[in-house]
Amino acid sequence: MKEGTTITKLVMLFLVACLAAYFGIYIAQGLTDEVTTAVVYTYTVNDSVETDGLLVRQEQVLPSYDGIVNVVPGEGDRVGSGQTVAVIYRDAAAQAREDEIQALTMEIELLEYAMSQPSMTSGTAQLEDQVFQSAVALRASTAAGEFGRLEEQVLELKRSVLRRDYTYGQSIDAGRLGQLNERLRQLRSQAAMDTSRVLAEQAGIYSAQVDGYEDRLTPDVALVLTPSTLESLLEQDPPTTENCLGKLITANRWYVVISLPEARVDKLYRGGTLLVGFTGDFERTVEMRIDHISRVEDGHCAVTLSTDRHLSDTTLLRTQTLEIIFDRQEGLRVPKAAVHILMKETTDEAGNTVQTTTTGVYAVVNGQAEFRKVEVLAEGRQFYVVRSLDEGKTTLRTGDQVVVRGKDIHDGKVLAG
User: Fold this and answer.
1) Is 119 helix (H, G, I), strand (E, B) or coil?
2) Widest CA span of the chain, in angstroms?
3) Is 70 exceeded by the pLDDT of residue 410?
4) 20 to 30 A from 311, CA-CA: which of 25, 69, 116, 394?
5) How high is the pLDDT of residue 376?
6) Average per-residue pLDDT in the chain?
7) Is 16 strand, coil or helix?
8) Measured at the alpha carbon of residue 136, what is the angle toward residues 171 and 156, in degrees to the nearest 5?
9) CA distances (Å), 22 to each of 25, 30, 80, 369, in order?
10) Which residues pair with 370 in a beta bridge?
């Protein structure tokens, strides 16, 4: 019995040693195999083409005037009907007089404000805040290089400072108010002889850029263009209109005319939409309505798109290289080498062998490879855009790591840390 017991123990120890060696080799291989991983991240891939296009707007050129011209609105500013577009001075003396008129008008306004206050110390905290906010706004505009409202912001800061000074107790002479009003009346009477104003005949968006397309490219023209006429317009250099104050864009809806291959136009229809990617200073993707599709010429069609958004941001654009986006897929980007197709054979109820395939990636979870099922949405040169078919904890997400390269990768394999 003792000899049998000894042999049994030796056999058991041998089996335990074999198992330990097996698992040791298995773990060692997992820890020593060279494994390359990549991070999963959100990605958008566009089915698109690049083409040149023309921007078309309803535009009215403002003629020039003799004298010193001071244009009031800035680029992209909205101008109301009857509102001043420019002030015309006959000479430098007339321009200097206008500066004095503005200063007098401001001082009169502030005196009237101060005289209307029941107490000269009321509301001082509010006025201090107004001065501070005006200074901050002016500084922010200057730092950002936005000078369209600079003059208006400077005047607002002056008003705030003077209003505060009067409220803090600067002496108010009621007789001075009468003197200022009389001086203002005299200056305005003189200005009537050598200063005039250009008023907007209709409301619109102001632009200083006049490129010669204004009379040749109208919305009516945009809706009948063909590929050949569009190409001709893109190749020509229109005569630049000189000696003008700028222009008013008098309709909110603006257009882009492009040429597309016939094969790309098959699924487009009037009233549908396309995404248009702009570049340069206006780097934005805009959804635009399809208003016109021309007949086919040499395998191409002219397509006219429009929108009523972002007009003030596009006043300086005319010819543009555009990305026309037909479809957009959003998913997870993974390297092609990380995607695997697993094949499995099963037997159905009739005894037939059925072969199924599953597409997925091996995600790294707690040092192990875990298979995650995915669907390929789009393909790039070296990557796929996929979406996860798993749910819950097994969903593939942004930030996960997937195995790109490794030896004998399988579900549950221990990976090197």
Assistant:
1) coil
2) 135
3) yes
4) 69
5) 94
6) 85
7) helix
8) 45
9) 5, 12, 86, 20
10) 363
Place of tokens 């941001």: 313
Residue 1 has pLDDT above 50, yes or no: no
pTM of this prediction? 0.68
Distance in angstroms (rounded) separating the CA atoms of residues 170 and 174: 13
Q: What is the pLDDT of residue 398?
A: 94
Smallest CA-to-CA distance from 331 within 27, 46, 26, 5 is with 46
Buried b (16+ CB within 10 A) or exposed e, 175-192: eebeeeeeebeebeeebe
Q: Counting Cβ atoms within 10 Å, is residue 19 exposed (0-12), middle (13-18) or buried (19+)? A: exposed
pLDDT of residue 356: 87
- What's the CA gap between 194 and 181, in Å, rounded? 21
* Encoded amino acid at 32, one letter: T
Q: How many CA atoms lie within 13 A of 50 on its CB side?
A: 4
* Strand partners for 358: 342
| Residue 323 · residue 276 · CB < 8 Å | yes
C-alpha 144/C-alpha 147 separation (Å) is: 9
Q: Tell me the per-residue pLDDT of 225-237, one tens digit each, with 9 for 90 and over.
A: 999 999 998 888 7
Structure tokens at 74: 């800035």
Cα torsion through 297, 302, 303, 309, rounded to 10: 180
> Tens digits of per-residue pLDDT, 351-395?
788 888 999 999 999 989 999 999 999 988 899 999 999 888 889
